[in-house]
Write a structure and sequence with these properties.
The protein is an all-alpha fold and 156 residues long. Helix 1 packs across helix 4, helix 2 packs across helix 4 and helix 8 packs across helix 9. The protein folds into 2 domains: 75 residues, Rna Polymerase Sigma Factor, Chain: A (Orthogonal Bundle); 72 residues, Arc Repressor Mutant, subunit A, CATH 1.10.10. Helices cover 75% and strands 0% of the residues. The protein is elongated and about 65 Å long.
Length: 156
């Protein structure tokens, strides 16, 4: 292992948890926080020669993380989030792939079925609630939670 590799490895071991805690405070999810911290260490690796001369490399890491968080926020502020309902309304059913091919594999079969009922078969909440044996309000909540879970899985 070279001196640079030992230096970066030591920085990672000493600062990863600290930077992750900071990042979790400002990020939308734990996965996003981890991505930001990994970006910081990629930048640290790229700037290793310069970073090795610093008296306090942790300060450099924290400032770099702060800049990565700002850049991430700017990126997401300028990005329009589109709901699955809007996507379902925009795609032509005959040209679109079946929803089952697009949904993440780690989504449970029941959750996939509910999304397919709602967005592919265009069932109303009332029809879905009768099939599930729950109230219409509970059905709406269930669909919202499944959509959120689906987004999280697709971002990973």
């Amino acid at each position: 292992m070279t001196e640079k590799q030992r230096f970066i490895k030591g920085l990672y071991e000493d600062n990863h948890e600290y930077l992750l805690r900071i990042s979790c405070i400002f990020s939308r999810s734990e996965a996003d926080a981890e991505d930001l911290v990994q970006n910081v260490f990629v930048l640290a690796t790229d700037s290793c020669d310069k970073l090795m001369t610093y008296k306090n490399p942790r300060a450099w890491l924290v400032v770099t993380l702060k800049n990565c968080i700002r850049n991430d926020r700017r990126l997401h502020a300028n990005t329009k989030n589109v709901s699955l309902e809007e996507i379902g309304d925009l795609t032509a059913p005959e040209a679109a792939e079946p929803l089952s091919y697009i949904l993440p594999g780690r989504l449970s079969g029941g959750d996939k079925d509910i999304l397919i009922w709602r967005f592919e078969r265009k069932l109303s909440y009332r029809e879905m609630s009768k099939k599930l044996g729950i109230s219409e309000t509970a059905c709406r909540v269930k669909v919202c939670r499944i959509i959120k879970k689906c987004r999280e899985l697709m971002e990973q």
